[in-house]
Design brief:
The complex is a heterodimer of chains A (about 325) and B (about 750). By secondary structure, chain A is an all-alpha fold. Chain A contains 18 helices and 2 strands. The longest helix of chain B is centred in the C-terminal third of the chain and has 58 residues. Chain B: Pfam families: LRR_4, LRR_9. Chain B: Part of the neuronal tubulin polyglutamylase complex which contains TPGS1, TPGS2, TTLL1, LRRC49 and NICN1. Interacts with PCM1; TTLL1, TPGS1, TPGS2 and LRRC49. Chain B: Keywords: Coiled coil, Cytoplasm, Cytoskeleton, Leucine-rich repeat, Microtubule, Repeat.
């Protein structure tokens, strides 16, 4: 507990920065919400479960969007949950529209805003033809960047627009300004000017931004790597290469590498079991009377699963 | 045909010897009473071919039997009549008692005469006008022959002249015969009526079977009462202006296309227009005495004005083109009509023909030559009554239908309006590119629902349409039970589920269809639906705003669904590739048979499981326990609690049970966590969460403040403590340094205490 950082700042600031408070608050909220049930099996048990689930990243399932995006860990957990739940859809090879992906997201988070999905789709489709079909992996990686680095990308968009319009962005970084206003501007640019902005200048600005940015940013080294490869680039070009960069994905740590995206042996095994079972019980109508009985089993199942395999995505303070 | 004829005759002419008839023509309209008597004798065995050739064709008389009785006279040598056929006419007029009219068969007679008979007939007609007795001398005018009769002839047949089959191409000049009353030009080749204007006493003129193209030269024959122009080439009825005493007008077998110029013939009793080219019947005003009208074998499609004929008794419309009773409806208004024929018309083929006619024309005594019996009349009225009821019923039905249609239109309009408002709201929220197509859709549906309304109502009676309009404004929803289907239109219709449905109705309904209702509103009544209609197996959704997969979660709470139909119209979710599989997955416990009319296969089920099985698995197995309970809801909560308790008591047994149930229904429960809260509720919930979070935040802040304060104090204490400790020790050491004085002090304290 007595890390050097810890001594450098007041306690509450430290706690807030590490999102400890967020989780404490949420735990208390959950306790409040389920106080009757919790009283059945004890408060200590409840807290154990709560923080366990936070560690596993399962705490975000079916939660409200405000909570899901509250911490980087929650975001990573959500990304991972999305990948795990709908990997099979991608594996099946279906190409889906932005709206359909949005529906899938809403299955996990009922109030997930359409805007984020649209932005993610824009990264894949490079800002045009929003009704096009996208592959699962393309969408997932774009969505990862958009969702995880949401605030960062907003600031980048602002910087990009400022660069385009010839302003010095270092003086005016206003992450709060809506990106919608900025997008209007490039139309006014002279026709002769090549598309996009100078990569090096852009990098300078981003470096500056990362230094000061209080939200999560992609590793600066990787940004440099991306930007050093080209002379000029557009905003969506940048986002596109950012989303495709394996290093960024690794740094984020929520999803496996692109090559392994469809691999999840443990889940595949589980799925085979489910499929066999569904085949056996094509006519489950007769059993419905016993349905509630299965709950306890589920519970036990889950505990077993906990003991068996440690989850890959553990909660680590950043 | 022949027996019928005999029959009809026999009764009538019982006292005449072998069909000999006594005929009296009496016409009151003439200034001096004409009394023409004819004696008819008939040679029955030699029934004349001539009659078959053309007399039948003419069919002047409805009393066909009588007509035939008379007509053969040319063959009877003792006949005292010169032109028998003409007399049949007259006779026919007088006959009012004859019962069975066979005249309908008249004009279906044989067209090709046997030559021998013609000659024979020609000869036999001879008594008065055999070629020997009449001299046709060419007159001073080159083209017209002049006729002279011998004086005996003149005396014998002073008032009649027959020039039958004389191969005449023009009318001869008839001199010194001003007293002639009957003139017969049958079977000649006369093309023009001429040279008879001096015969001003002429009553009877027969020009049957000539080649006359125009009615003319008759203007002076004011006494004329019988004019026979059958089988000529007349195209137009004209030049009859002065023939005001005309009794019989026969124009059959001509080329007349229109009834005209007859309205002044107020004494006309028989008009024969059979075998002409009439396409319709009208212009019958003024024919106040007309009792018989023959219109067979024309191309008549409709009949008008017949109700303006006060004396009309017999009307023959056989072999025309009448296909509905409406086109002859004026007949129903005629009070005098007692005998009518429709055979050979399309209308006679209809099943309703007889009773419709009888019902509408109660005055009828004969229809298609058959006597109308009381029985038939009764039948007709019964059938008509039934028909009437049916009609009323169908009218009611169509009224209801119309009302339904209008209501649905109205509901649709409301729905579109609502959608548009919602759309514009979302558009304002986020000006995204996705909204324009929706807008377009909206406009299209709007246009299609609104535009048909005005023109359609225009078709309905104005009175009705106004009521409809009234209804359509009021009714914003529609509930319809049709067989096993319950259809709900508009959100207001959902309230009908609160109604007390009879057990029978409720049990019968297996299909429930929702149209123009927000899906979120439907979700709220699903429990009611489950209770009231336990047998509903097929759900249909149209224009219900199904946009998300998760909305299907709501259907899982129903008891049973065999079929699901989601119309793409107004349900964008159907455009998703995955929607069907998601439905199958989420509602797998229903073992659905059909989705949107397509049979669900085993492969579909497996595919659904493959796509979404993991989602369910993760959802159920990785949720923390407290979350699981709160998501599953109260009912399950209790059961769960119960399970927890029993688990504690008898772990072994329960485990076994659990294993069983896990094997059986685990797959169903694990997707119970996937449920749907309607947007409204969800927003409420979010508000609630916000409140609670706020409280929690404050609570935590307090806690934290306290904790950090305690921590700070603790830290401060930790900093001070070493020094304090040293000081304390030092003080203690100083105190006990002088052992004696310290001991003394201690003792002193002890004694003081005592």
């Amino acid at each position: 507990m007595l890390s050097p950082e810890r001594l450098a700042q007041p306690d509450h600031e430290y706690l807030a920065q590490r999102h400890v408070l967020t989780y404490m608050e949420d735990a208390v909220y959950q306790l409040l919400e389920n106080r009757e049930d919790v009283s059945q099996y004890g408060i200590s048990r409840f807290f154990t479960e709560y923080f366990n689930s936070v560690c596993q990243g399962t705490h975000i399932l079916f939660r409200e969007f405000s909570f899901i995006q509250a911490t980087p860990h929650n975001r990573a957990s959500f990304l991972r949950a999305f990948w795990r739940c709908f990997r099979t859809v991608g594996k099946n090879g279906d190409l889906l529209t932005m709206r359909e992906y949005h529906c899938l997201l809403q299955l996990l988070c009922p109030d997930f805003p359409l805007e984020l999905t649209q932005k993610a789709a824009r990264i894949v489709l490079l800002d045009d033809a929003m009704d096009c079909l996208m592959s699962f992996s393309d969408f997932l990686f774009a969505f990862q960047i958009q969702f995880y680095y949401s605030e960062f990308l907003d600031s980048v968009a602002a910087i990009y627009q400022d660069l385009l319009s010839g302003k010095n962005p270092n003086t005016v970084i206003v992450p709060t300004s809506s990106s919608g206003q900025h997008r209007q501007r490039p139309a006014l640019g002279e026709a002769g000017v090549p598309e996009g902005v100078e990569a090096s200048q852009f990098y300078q600005c981003l470096e500056n931004l990362c230094d000061r940015h209080k939200y999560s940013c992609p590793p600066l080294a990787l940004v440099k790597e991306i930007l050093s490869g080209v002379q000029r680039l557009t905003f969506y070009g940048f986002l596109g290469s950012l989303s495709k960069h394996p290093g960024v994905n690794q740094a984020l740590g929520a999803l496996p590498d692109k090559g392994d995206l469809m691999q999840d042996p443990a889940m595949d095994e589980e799925l085979e079991r489910l499929v066999v079972r569904s085949r056996l019980h094509r006519t489950p109508r007769q059993h419905r009377a016993q349905e509630p009985g299965a709950l306890g089993t589920q519970r036990r199942d889950k505990l077993e699963a906990l003991e068996r395999a440690p989850e890959p995505s553990r909660w680590q303070p950043e | 045909m022949i027996p019928g004829k005999y029959r009809s005759v026999s009764g009538r002419s019982a006292n005449n010897v072998n069909c000999g008839l006594h005929l009296v023509i009496q016409t009151s309209s003439l200034p001096e009473k004409h009394k023409v008597e004819f004696k008819l004798h008939r040679d029955t065995p030699s029934f004349p071919g001539r009659l078959l050739q053309h007399d039948l064709e003419r069919n002047y008389s409805s009393r066909q039997g009588d007509g035939r009785v008379i007509s053969p006279s040319p063959r009877s040598k003792s006949s005292c009549i010169s032109s028998t056929t003409n007399l049949t006419e007259l006779y026919g007029l007088e006959m009012k008692t004859a019962t069975s009219s066979l005249s309908a068969f008249g004009d279906s007679s044989i067209q090709t005469p046997s030559k021998a008979r013609i000659r024979q007939g020609c000869h036999s007609a001879g008594p008065n006008i055999s070629g020997d007795h009449i001299n046709l001398v060419s007159s001073s005018m080159p083209s017209f022959p002049i006729l002279h009769r011998s004086s005996e002839e003149k005396i014998l047949y002073s008032d009649r002249l027959t020039l039958e089959r004389q191969k005449l191409t023009v009318c001869p000049i008839i001199d010194g015969e001003e007293h002639l009353r009957l003139l017969n030009f049958q079977h000649n080749f006369i093309t023009r009526i001429q040279n008879i204007s001096n015969l001003q006493r002429l009553i009877f003129l027969d020009l049957y079977d000539n080649q006359i193209e125009e009615i003319s030269g008759l203007s002076t024959l004011r006494s004329l009462r019988v004019l026979l122009l059958g089988k000529n080439r007349i195209k137009k009825i004209s030049n009859l202006e002065n023939l005001i005493n005309l009794d019989v007008l026969d124009l059959h077998g001509n080329q007349i296309t229109k009834i005209e110029n007859v309205s002044h013939l107020c004494d006309l009793r028989v008009l024969n227009l059979a075998r002409n080219l009439l396409s319709h019947v009208d212009n019958l005003n003024g024919l106040d005495s007309l009792t018989e009208l023959n219109l067979r074998h024309n191309q008549i499609t409709f009949v008008r004005d017949v109700d303006n004929l006060p004396s009309l008794q017999r009307l023959f419309l056989s072999f025309n083109n009448i296909s509905s009773f409406d086109s002859v409806s004026c007949l129903a208004d005629s009070t005098s009509l007692s005998d009518i024929t429709f055979d050979g018309n399309p209308i006679a083929q209809e099943s309703w023909y007889k009773h419709t006619v009888l019902q509408n024309m109660t005055q009828l005594r004969q229809l298609d030559m058959k006597r109308v019996t009381e029985e038939e009349r009764r039948m007709a009225s019964v059938v008509a009554k039934k028909e009437e009821e049916k009609k009323r019923e169908s009218q009611k039905q169509s009224l209801l239908k119309e009302k339904k249609r209008l209501t649905i239109n109205n509901v649709a309009r409301h729905w579109d309006l609502q959608q548009r408002v919602a759309n514009s709201a979302t558009n304002q929220d986020r000006k995204e590119s996705a909204s324009p197509p929706q807008d377009q859709d909206c406009c299209q549906t709007e246009g299609s629902t609104v535009s048909p309304l005005p023109e359609d109502t225009g078709a309905v009676d104005s009175g009705l349409s106004s009521t409809f309009q009234g209804l359509s404004v009021i009714d914003t929803h529609l509930v319809e039970v049709d067989g096993d289907t319950l259809s709900l239109y508009g959100s207001g219709a959902l309230e009908s589920l609160d109604r007390n449905w009879s057990v029978q109705t409720a049990g019968m309904i297996t299909t429930v269809s929702f149209t123009f209702i927000e899906f979120d509103e439907i979700v709220q009544v699903l429990p009611k639906l489950k209770m009231k209609f336990p047998n509903s197996l097929h759900l249909k959704f149209r224009e219900t705003n199904l946009v998300m997969l998760q909305q299907f979660n709501a259907l899982a709470q129903l008891r049973r669904i065999d079929q699901l139909t989601v119309d793409p119209q107004g349900n964008p979710v159907v455009n998703f590739t995955l929607w069907k599989y998601y439905v199958l997955f989420r509602l797998s416990h229903f073992s659905m048979q059909k989705i949107n009319g397509t049979e669900v296969t085993q492969n579909d089920m497996i595919m659904a499981e493959r796509l979404f099985g993991i989602l369910a698995h993760i959802a159920s197995s990785e949720l923390p326990q407290y979350r699981l309970i709160s998501i599953l809801g109260d009912v399950r909560k209790k059961q769960f609690r119960y399970l927890l308790e029993t688990k504690g008591k008898k772990p072994g047994i329960v485990n076994e049970e659990n294993n069983d149930s896990k094997r059986l229904v685990g797959e169903n429960t694990n997707r119970a966590t996937l449920n749907y809260t309607t947007r409204e509720f969800y927003n409420e919930k979010l508000e609630d969460i916000k409140e609670k979070k706020k409280f929690c935040k404050m609570y935590m802040e307090d806690l934290m403040k306290e904790a950090t304060e305690i921590n700070m104090k603790n830290e401060a204490l930790q900093k001070l403590w070493p020094q304090m400790f040293i000081e304390l020790v030092r003080d203690a050491v100083i105190e006990i340094r002088n052992k004696n004085s310290y001991m003394k002090l201690c003792l002193q304290q002890i004694t003081d205490q005592k």
